[in-house]
Amino acid sequence: xxxxxxxxxxxxxxxxxxxxxxxxxxxxxxxxxxxxxxxxxxxxxxxxxxxxxxxxxxxxxxxxxxxxxxxxxxxxxxxxxxxxxxxxxxxxxxxxxxxxxxxxxxxxxxxxxxxxxxxxxxxxxxxxxxxxxxxxxxxxxxxxxxxxxxxxxxxxxxxxxxxxxxxxxxxxxxxxxxxxxxxxxxxxxxxxxxxxxxxxxxxxxxxxxxxxxxxxxxxxxxxxxxxxxxxxxxxxxxxxxxxxxxxxxxxxxxxxxxxxxxxxxxxxxxxxxxxxxxxxxxxxxxxxxxxxxxxxxxxxxxxxxxxxxxxxxxxxxxxxxxxxxxxxxxxxxxxxxxxxxxxxxxxxxxxxxxxxxxxxxxxxxxxxxxxxxxxxxxxxxxxxxxxxxxxxxxxxxxxxxxxxxxxxxxxxxxxxxxxxxxxxxx
Length: 426
Fold this sequence. Notes:
Layout (H helix, E strand, L loop, with lengths): L7 E4 L5 E4 L11 E4 L1 E2 L11 E3 L16 H9 L3 H9 L7 H14 L17 H16 L6 H15 L10 H14 L3 E2 L3 E3 L2 E3 L1 E15 L2 E16 L1 H5 L4 E3 L1 E3 L4 E4 L8 H20 L5 H15 L4 H10 L8 H17 L8 H4 L4 H22 L7 H4 L7 E5 L4 E5 L6
Parallel strand pairs: 10-13
Antiparallel strand pairs: 1-2, 2-3, 4-9, 5-11, 6-9, 7-8, 9-10, 12-13, 14-15
Helix pairs in contact: 1-2, 2-3, 4-5, 5-6, 8-9, 9-11, 9-13, 10-11, 11-13
C-alpha cells in the first residue's frame, strides 16, 4: 500500500506555518498549504461529510457471535431506529460485556416510552431547554418513520423563543424568522450554530463554543485556490446523527458558498482523513456550488466521494468499506444514495459487475488503479453535467432509480431530456 508523505511544517514570518505535502487532487499536483488565524464568524447550514470518531468505517466483517453493528448504524443514519432496535433484539449470540453495555445504552435511549439516557445531563449548557425540544423531536421522528413531527417542532420552537428570549416576542411564525431568532438566541449565550435547517428529512441542531478562522492555500490543476476553513470546537450538540448513533457518527464538516467548516475533534490535521476526506471533499463541494448551483445533495456527495477515492492511499480501503456498509439507493440521506452510486459505478468499471459488496475483492486491486478509475469517472461526470447545463439539478440520484438502464431522464430548469448515459453504463 502506498503511503502519503507526511506534511513538513515550516515557520515563516508573523507566526504563519506552511504545510508542504505531496498529494493529488484528481490530476492535480504538488499541493501546498499555509494557514493563518483570525476571529470567528457566523455560519450557514449545508451539512455534508459524516465522520466516525473511532474510524472511517465499521469493521469489515462482523463475527457471528456479535450483533450486526453495520446494520445498526446504517439504519440509524437512515433515520430508522426501530429497525436498529430489531437487529439488536435478534437472538443467536451471546453478548460480550461491551455489547451488553451498548445494547443497554441504546435501549435506554430508544426502547421505552421516554429517553432514559443522560443525553442532556452529559452536555450541560445554557441551551438545555432548547436541546430538550430537539431531543424529543428527534426521538419521535427516529422511532416513527411514518409520522411527520416537523410542525410540532416549529410550534415548540416558536413558543420557546417567545417566552425565553425577550426579542422573541417580535417573532413572526415562519421558518425564516425562526432561523433568524434561533441564531440570535444562541449567539446571545456566547455560542455558535448552523441555524435552522435539515439533515436528510429531519431538522437539525449543531451548536459549538469556539471556532478559529483559518485559510488553507493549495494548487489544484495549476490553479491556486485559497479555502477559508472554520475550525470548530467545544460542541454542545452535533445533531440527530450523533444522537441516533450514541455519539459514534456525526457531521465532520460542511461547506457553504463562503467557507468550509471543520469539526476539529474529528481529525488529525496532518492525516488523510483531514487532507482528503475533509479538505479535498469539501473543496469539491465549494467548487461545485459555483459550477452547478442547483445540484442535489446526493449528486454533490457522489462527486466529493469520488474525489476522495481518486486521492486516498492509506485510507482507501477503509473508505470503500464505509461506502459499501452505508450504501442505500432508496434512502432520504444524500450520503447513503451517493455511497451506493459510487460503489455501483466503480464496480462496473473495475469488476464488470453491479454493486460489489465484498471488500476482500477490492483489496486485491492496486491502489493506483482505483485512484485512476475514480478520477476518470469524476471527469466523465463533470463533462456530462456541463453538457446538460449549469442549472442541472439531478444526475446520479435519478440513476439510482433506473440503474439497470443506460438511459436516464435528466431535468434542467427549462428542459427534460433523455440522454445517453455514457458516464454511468455498467
